[in-house]
Design brief:
four-stranded antiparallel beta sheet, 2 domains, single chain, Serine Threonine Protein Phosphatase 5, Tetratricopeptide repeat, alpha+beta, 13% strand
Length: 243
């Protein structure tokens, strides 16, 4: 039996979490989802109460229909992605291995069932959750950024903030105050590295042509408009060179 009074979330003692969990419904517009997410996974930060909530979130994901389980999968994915944070809980992946295995299975089933029907952000979020359950670095937390169609990255050579636009029909890089821009050259599908190809094929299977194109450009090549240094956007994201 979980003693929630001994656990913490973003706002203090977590004895209010069971009540929030009891109020969860398969409605992504329900305010309780925002309330719970803010408490146990505040801006990506996890707490002792976060992992204690995984069993209940797994139950909801198992019981609800694929189209209704996006929220529990998303919140669980965000929590698991934070497993390596300094939370003082030890090896939470090992402790919650059964839940994570089940969440991965459910996320894969959901992707196949509704991947072509949900919004672009929800599709990317579902893929991102799968990567979190599999313990894939970087993209288990950064993939949904592709939905905005823009990454802001510092150039390693000249230290200018580059705006990488990856949003149809425009794929280019600009630096504020610099007239020139740089085109982003997409990678060929057959040249994608294993993880990138896997994401591309998942988007293809779901009929997400826009995301397919974005992924090719994300893993393609371009250059800094200020100094001309060549780079791959995905590699810069992996290095954490955010403005």
């Amino acid at each position: 039996m979980t003693d929630w009074t001994q656990l913490r979330h973003a706002y203090g003692r977590a004895d209010d979490v069971p009540g929030m969990l009891d109020r969860l419904v398969p409605d992504d517009g329900a305010e309780v989802w925002t309330e719970l997410s803010s408490a146990i996974c505040h801006q990506g930060t996890v707490y002792s109460a976060s992992f204690a909530a995984l069993p209940r979130l797994t139950e909801f994901a198992r019981e609800w229909a694929p189209a209704d389980r996006l929220w529990p999968l998303s919140l669980s994915g965000s929590i698991v992605a934070g497993a390596d944070q300094d939370h003082g809980l030890g090896d939470v992946r090992a402790e919650h291995a059964a839940e994570i295995t089940e969440l991965l299975r459910l996320a894969e089933v959901t992707l196949e069932a509704v991947g072509g029907e949900v919004g672009e952000y929800s599709f990317l979020d579902l893929l991102q959750s799968i990567l979190a359950f599999e313990d894939v670095p970087v993209w288990s937390e950064r993939l949904t950024a592709l939905a905005s169609g823009e990454f802001e990255l510092y150039c390693e050579d000249c230290d200018e903030c580059m705006h990488v636009i990856l949003d149809e029909p425009s794929f280019y890089v600009y630096v504020s105050g610099v007239e020139a821009t740089s085109a982003v050259v997409p990678a060929a599908p057959d040249d994608l590295e294993p993880l990138a190809r896997r994401l591309y094929l998942a988007a293809e299977a779901a009929g997400r042509s826009k995301i397919m194109n974005q992924l090719l450009h994300l893993f393609g090549t371009t250059a800094c408009p200020e100094c001309g240094r060549g780079f791959q956007t995905a590699a810069e994201v992996a290095d954490g060179r955010f403005c």
